[in-house]
Amino acid sequence: MINVLFVCLGNICRSPMAEAVLRHKVNERGLAQQIRVDSAGTGDWHIGKPPHEGTRELLDSRQISYADMAARQFESEDFVQFNYIICMDDSNAANVRSVTGGEEAEIIKMMDLLPDETLREVPDPYYTGNFEEVYRLLDAGCEVLLDRIAKEHSLL
Question: Residue 100 above 80 pLDDT?
Fold first, then answer.
């Protein structure tokens, strides 16, 4: 099983949106038995809460499921449990790297998957309110990530 973890600040906007989008793409490609997707936040403010209303509305409009998703905090065990840790911005990446654990997982910034984009961080819609822009970036980034995982692990 290949395990992918998306990380943002509070785990209610960006990372659960990315989790839902990648799960949707994984299911469309018939890879649900080979790829597991989760998300976490570096902060603890929203533990146990569902995705933000803006994230839910956007996912609903595209018929992408976020069933059973609840915010959780990133922890050191995630380094062992996940092959890929995808961070939404520099602060998230720095916070993940500051957690003591292992170096087993590959830490990637989402926007590094989209080198042609001018933005170098996924904006936080909790503050900007622009869930559409975030979806556009995450949808494109998840497509690139899934192609990369499929190639690296010889998945059909």
Answer: no
